[in-house]
Design goal:
The complex is a heterodimer of chains A (290) and B (276).
Chain A (H helix, E strand, L loop, with lengths): L3 H33 L1 E2 L9 E2 L3 H8 L1 H32 L6 H9 L6 H12 L6 H8 L7 H4 L1 H26 L3 H9 L4 H12 L1 H15 L4 H6 L11 H11 L3 H27 L5
Helix pairs in contact in A: 1-14, 2-14, 3-8, 3-11, 3-13, 5-8, 8-11, 11-14, 13-14
Chain B lengths: L6 H29 L3 H4 L14 H10 L1 H32 L5 H10 L9 H10 L6 H25 L3 H9 L4 H30 L3 H4 L8 H7 L8 H21 L1 H8 L6
Classes of the chains: A mainly alpha (290), B mainly alpha (276).
Chain lengths: 290, 276
C-alpha cells in the first residue's frame, strides 16, 4: 500500500546509489573503450592516433590469449568445483553431532579472513618453497625430490591456494543450509530404508540448492578478478603458464606499458564477464527471491 | 540435527571433523608459529614444531622498521570510512527497495551485483588517470571513495535481505499514525534493522581491510594500508621467513579476531537471505 508520494520518496532514496554505481561503471568503461582504439604507449608518448581494431587484433592473435582465457575459466571452474564439493563434504561432517562445534567453525572460517597477499605468501614461502617449504620437507622425509609446485604446476598451485581461501565461505553457507533441514524428514527416510546416498541425493541436495547457488554466484564475482594471488606467487609464469586474462592485461599495462592493448584486453574481459554474468543471473534469478 | 547416535559414532565423527578443521586452519597456525621462531629455526630442516628457539624479536623488528602504526591506522580509516560512507548511501536505497518495491526492483538489484563482475584490472588505467587528475592518488580519501563504490552492491544486497525480513505490518501501523517515510526510517526501521546493519558493517570492514588490488594500485606510501604493506614485503627467498610471518600475522590479526567474534552474523548476512 504505497502512495504516490512515498513512491517518489523511494525513488529519491534509490537514486544516489544508482547514480554512483553508474558513474563508477560507465566513466572508466568509456575511457577504456576510447583507449582501446588508440595508439597509446607510455614509452613513446608522442606517437598517438586512432588505430581502429589493431589493439584488439593484437590481443586476440597473441599466442597467450587463448591460454589466458583457458586459465581464467580453469581458475573459476576449478575453484568452484573444489570448494562446492569439499565444502559440502565438510559441512555434512560438521553437521553431525560433534564435540566443540563452535570452536570447529572458528578454525574452519579462518582462511576467509586472511588477505590475499598474506594467503599467497604463506603458501608460496612456508609450504611450496622447494628448499624451505613444509611440502619439500615432507617429500624429503620420504626420500623423494621436492615437488616444484609453482614452477611445474603453476596453475594448479594457484587454484589450490584460491580454493583454500574460499573453502570456508562455501562450507559455512552450506552448513547453514544443512542445519535448517528438519531431522524428521531424514529420519523418516532412514526408517523407510533409504540409503545414505539417496538421502543425500533426494533430500539434502534439493534443500541445499539455493545455498549452492549463492556460493556459485558470490564466488564467481570474486574469482573472475583474481589477481593478487598470481601477482604474489607466479607472476603469471613460468612463461605464460599461469597468466589469466586479468593478469595478461596487467602485463600489457605495467610491463609493456602499452595502454591501448591493455585497454582492448580490458574490453574483452568485460565482455567475457558479461557473458558469465548473463548466464549466472538467469540461473540465479529463480533461486534468490529478490 | 539432534538425532540419537551411538557414543562410538560420535567419537569417530568428532575426530574426523577436528582433523579436517585443523588441516584447514594449519597454514594460519604454521605462519603464527613461524613468526615466533628465530630465522634459523624458521627454515630448519627437518621443520621444528615444538623444539624451536622461540622469540619475540621478529615482532619487535617489524615494528621498529616498518612504521606499522601508520599502515594500521590507514587500514582502519580506509575500511571503516568506506563502510560508513557506503552505509550512508546504501541504507536509504535498500530501505526503499525493500519496502516500496517497484516492478524493476529485482532487475535493479541484479544489475548492481553485476557491476561487481567487471574485472578491476580492466579499468585500472582509466581509474588511475582519473584519480591522478583529481589529486586522489595516495590519499586515504581516494581509497575510501574507491572501496566504498567497489563494495556498494554487496552492502545494498545485504541490507536489502535484512530489511525484507522486517514485518510490513509495523510499517503500515506507523504510516496510519501519519509518520513520514523519513520518520519511519529513523523511529521504526532503524531500531529493528540495527542487527542487520551491524553485520553488514562488519562484513564490509573485513572486505575493505583485505582488499589488495586498488590499495596497491592507488597508493604509494602515505595512504598505503596493511594489504599494500604486505605486498611490498618483497619475495624473501627463504631469508626472512620469521619476519615475513610476523608482519603477516600483524596484518591479519585485527581482522581475524574481529571476524571470529562476529562469524555467526557474517555467515547469515553472506547468504543474501537465500539460506535461512
Amino acid at each position: 500500500m504505497s502512495t504516490q508520494s512515498s513512491r517518489f520518496a523511494a525513488r529519491m532514496m534509490v537514486a544516489p546509489s544508482v547514480a554512483l554505481l553508474l558513474i563508477w561503471m560507465i566513466v572508466p568503461l568509456a575511457m577504456t573503450l576510447y583507449y582501446s582504439f588508440r595508439l597509446y604507449r607510455l614509452l613513446s608518448p608522442d606517437r598517438t592516433g586512432w588505430v581502429g581494431f589493431t589493439n584488439y587484433r593484437w590481443f586476440l592473435n597473441s599466442p597467450d590469449f587463448w591460454l589466458a582465457m583457458f586459465n581464467t575459466l580453469a581458475l573459476v571452474g576449478g575453484v568452484l568445483i573444489i570448494t562446492v564439493v569439499l565444502g559440502m563434504l565438510i559441512a555434512l561432517l560438521i553437521d553431525q553431532p560433534v564435540k566443540g562445534q563452535g570452536l570447529l567453525r572458528i578454525l574452519v572460517i579462518a582462511p576467509f579472513f586472511v588477505m590475499p597477499p598474506v594467503a599467497a605468501s604463506i603458501w608460496e614461502n612456508l609450504f611450496m618453497h622447494p628448499q624451505n617449504g613444509l611440502f619439500a620437507a615432507v617429500s624429503r622425509s620420504f626420500g623423494a625430490q621436492p615437488i616444484l609446485f609453482l614452477e611445474n604446476y603453476p596453475m594448479l598451485s594457484v587454484i589450490g591456494i584460491v580454493s583454500w581461501e574460499w573453502l570456508p565461505f562455501a562450507t559455512l553457507i552450506l552448513l547453514t543450509a544443512l542445519q535448517s533441514l528438519s531431522s524428521e524428514q531424514l529420519e523418516a527416510a532412514e526408517m523407510d530404508g533409504a540409503s545414505a546416498f539417496s538421502r543425500f541425493r533426494y533430500i539434502i541436495l534439493p534443500h541445499a540448492t539455493r545455498a549452492i547457488t549463492v556460493v556459485i554466484l558470490i564466488q564467481t564475482i570474486f574469482l573472475l578478478g583474481i589477481f593478487g594471488e598470481i601477482f604474489t606467487t607466479t607472476q603469471g609464469g613460468p612463461g605464460s603458464a599461469s597468466t589469466t586474462l586479468p593478469y595478461m592485461i596487467f602485463k600489457q599495462a605495467i610491463a609493456a606499458k602499452d595502454i591501448g592493448r591493455a585497454a582492448a584486453g580490458g574490453i574483452i574481459a568485460v565482455i567475457l564477464a558479461n557473458i558469465v554474468a548473463y548466464f549466472l543471473m538467469r540461473g540465479i534469478g529463480r533461486h534468490l527471491d529478490a | 540435527m539432534a538425532r540419537a547416535v551411538t557414543p562410538r559414532r560420535k567419537l569417530i565423527t568428532t575426530l574426523a571433523a577436528w582433523t579436517v578443521a585443523l588441516i584447514i586452519f594449519f597454514p594460519v597456525l604454521w605462519m603464527i608459529l613461524t613468526s615466533f621462531k628465530t630465522e634459523a629455526s624458521a627454515v630448519a630442516n627437518p621443520p621444528e614444531f615444538f623444539s624451536a628457539d622461540w622469540t619475540l624479536a621478529n615482532y619487535a623488528e617489524v615494528w621498529a622498521r616498518s612504521d606499522y602504526p601508520r599502515f594500521f591506522w590507514n587500514s582502519v580509516v580506509i575500511s571503516v570510512g568506506s563502510t560508513l560512507l557506503g552505509l550512508l548511501v546504501a541504507v536509504p536505497s535498500a530501505w526503499a527497495m525493500a519496502f516500496v518495491p517497484g516492478r524493476k526492483t529485482k532487475d535493479l538489484l541484479m544489475w548492481m551485483l553485476s557491476t561487481k563482475m567487471m574485472p578491476a584490472v580492466a579499468v585500472m588505467i582509466p581509474l588511475y588517470l582519473l584519480f591522478q587528475r583529481l589529486g586522489l592518488i595516495d590519499t586515504k580519501f581516494g581509497l575510501v571513495i574507491a572501496l566504498m563504490l567497489m563494495n556498494l552492491p554487496i552492502i545494498i544486497w545485504m541490507l536489502y535481505t535484512y530489511f525484507k525480513e522486517i514485518p510490513g505490518e509495523i510499517l503500515e501501523a506507523s504510516r496510519m499514525d501519519g509518520a513520514s517515510l523519513w520518520g519511519e526510517i529513523v523511529h521504526v526501521l532503524t531500531p529493528m534493522a540495527l542487527p542487520g546493519i551491524a553485520s553488514t558493517m562488519l562484513l564490509n570492514i573485513i572486505l575493505a581491510w583485505n582488499e589488495a588490488f586498488w590499495t596497491i594500485v592507488l597508493t604509494t606510501t602515505k595512504a598505503a594500508p596493511l594489504s599494500a604493506f604486505i605486498a611490498s614485503f618483497s619475495a624473501p627467498q627463504g631469508l626472512f621467513y620469521a619476519k615475513l610471518s610476523a608482519a603477516s600475522a600483524m596484518a591479519i590479526m585485527p581482522i581475524l579476531i574481529l571476524g571470529w567474534f562476529s562469524q555467526k552474523q557474517l555467515v547469515r548476512g553472506l547468504t543474501f537471505g537465500a539460506v535461512k
